[in-house]
Design a protein that fits this description.
heterodimer; A: about 270 residues; alpha+beta; Immunoglobulin-like; 3 domains; four-stranded antiparallel β-sheet; 7 helices; 8 strands; about 50% helix; elongated; B: about 180 residues; mainly alpha; Rna Polymerase Sigma Factor, Chain: A; Arc Repressor Mutant, subunit A; 2 domains; 9 helices; about 70% helix
């Protein structure tokens, strides 16, 4: 056993700092008992640690001492010597005292039990609240997941349709009109399957009282086939079915759309090639 | 008072002995706490609780496992560390440095504190960078050696030998002050 290596390993310092496991502590204790050099080093280090703590220590404020001794008041044993010569008088009191101490003990137990009960009740309440919060969080997450799933399914079926279908692109532009020169909307139309999607590239934002409405202009004149959300840029918005159209156009209509287009507020138009 | 006598008095729940204990050790024990917890009110609260605990749990102290002071200092240190990890203390107070501690003492109007500041500086003399780091983290920030090893990626054996070396420097400085 290399005692010097054991001493210089730093283990004794950690022992004194209270950082060793129970097993390692036991080892240090038994090593110190076995080797006087280790015991001596340990003694010196303990003294040094106290000296260091004392040197860089700070005295607590005066009030704290009084507070500590107040808290400890019930701990201290009463001095018994002064009353020892009145022993005979005490004898008479003896029969009563067990009663009293039982009463005191019982009430102490009662107080203790109630405080333990209150303590655990509050713990329980706390845990229960945490549990409820977790449940709520979980249900929010489940909702979110469901929503994401629905969105995904919708996109997926859109993609299926786009890939499988026979869509033609109709570019709706605002250049020739006076409302929004740079307005631009792409429209995808599968005439056979009667499906229409629009993708907004650029449309000015409308105030709450108005909506953009899409019109299919065919032999029977313009037919409203849905409202276009100008905020949803670069995503596909599915519109109502249409089988026949020579052109598509978007107008600004009062909220909810109109029966027939307000031609003065024609924003974009595009002919089916 | 001999340590044996002191322990016997404490076990007998004797008030005089407890007062003696307080006079002899409160400065060092409060030091252990207050260098980890800068806020004086919180440090005193922890000291109050620790000292009360020491007196109440004196029967758990075993002489064979080290001196009384070491046992008491561990109770104080662990309570202080527990406190810094509780909600009450913001993470910022875990960034204590030796310089902050000295500055805190120096800027205090109390002359005793100002004298202490000089003492702390003298004690920390001659620590090299690694040793100063170790003392700062163990003594002032309340880290354990395994936390230092983990957080700064220093092998456990290296941390141990630096703890040893740093305390040796402090010990040597104590003798020369």
């Amino acid at each position: 056993m290399d005692i010097q290596a054991y001493i210089t390993s730093g283990k004794l310092e950690l022992f004194l700092l209270g950082e060793l496991s129970e097993r390692e502590r036991a080892e240090v204790v038994s090593m110190a008992a076995q080797y006087p050099e280790i015991q001596q080093e340990l003694d010196e280090l303990e003294q040094a640690m106290f000296d260091i703590d004392h040197k860089i220590g700070v005295a607590p404020s005066a009030g704290i001492k009084a507070k500590i001794f107040d808290s400890l008041d019930s701990e201290f044993k009463e001095e018994t010597k002064p009353i020892s010569n009145t022993a005979p008088a005490q004898g008479k009191v003896v029969p009563l005292s067990p009663w009293k101490s039982f009463a005191v003990a019982a009430s102490l137990v009662a107080v203790l039990a109630s405080s333990v009960a209150i303590f655990y009740a509050s713990k329980f309440y706390e845990k229960e609240q945490q549990f409820t919060a977790l449940l709520q969080e979980q249900s929010v997450m489940a909702d979110n997941l469901n929503q994401v799933k629905l969105e995904f399914e919708a996109k997926d079926s859109q993609l299926d349709k786009l890939v499988a279908g026979d869509f033609r692109l109709v570019k709706l532009k605002g250049e020739s009109l006076n409302m929004q020169k740079d307005a631009s909307v792409n429209l995808f139309w599968d005439q056979g399957a009667q499906e229409v999607f629009v993708a907004v590239n650029n449309l000015n934002e409308l105030s709450d009282e108005y909506d953009y409405q899409l019109w299919a202009i065919g032999d029977q004149g313009p037919i409203g086939i849905g409202l276009v959300n100008e905020g949803e840029k670069m995503t596909l918005q599915q519109m109502q079915a249409v089988a026949q159209a020579g052109a598509f156009a978007i107008t600004i209509e009062p909220k909810g759309g109109s029966e027939s287009p307000t031609l003065e507020k024609l924003v974009v138009i595009g002919n089916v090639a | 008072m001999e340590e044996q006598q002191l322990i016997a008095g404490l076990r007998a729940k004797d008030r005089k002995t407890t007062e003696y204990l307080y006079e002899k050790y409160s400065r060092a024990l409060f030091g252990v706490i207050s260098r980890i917890i800068f806020d004086k009110d919180i440090a005193e609260e922890v000291f109050h609780d620790s000292f009360v605990k020491i007196i109440q749990k004196i029967d758990r102290y075993e002489e064979s496992k080290g001196r009384l002071y070491t046992w008491m200092a561990n109770i104080c240190r662990n309570s202080a560390i527990d406190k810094t990890r509780s909600k009450e203390i913001s993470q910022s107070s875990k960034t204590n440095t030796i310089d902050d501690f000295v500055y805190g003492l120096e800027s205090n109007s109390d002359t005793m504190d100002q004298v202490n500041a000089i003492g702390v500086k003298e004690l920390m003399n001659d620590l090299n960078e690694d040793q100063r780091f170790i003392i700062e983290y163990i003594y002032f920030k309340g880290y354990t050696h395994s936390e230092i090893s983990e957080e700064f990626d220093i092998p456990l054996g290296t941390v141990k030998s630096r703890v040893r070396a740093a305390i040796q420097v402090l010990k040597k400085n104590l003798d020369s002050i």
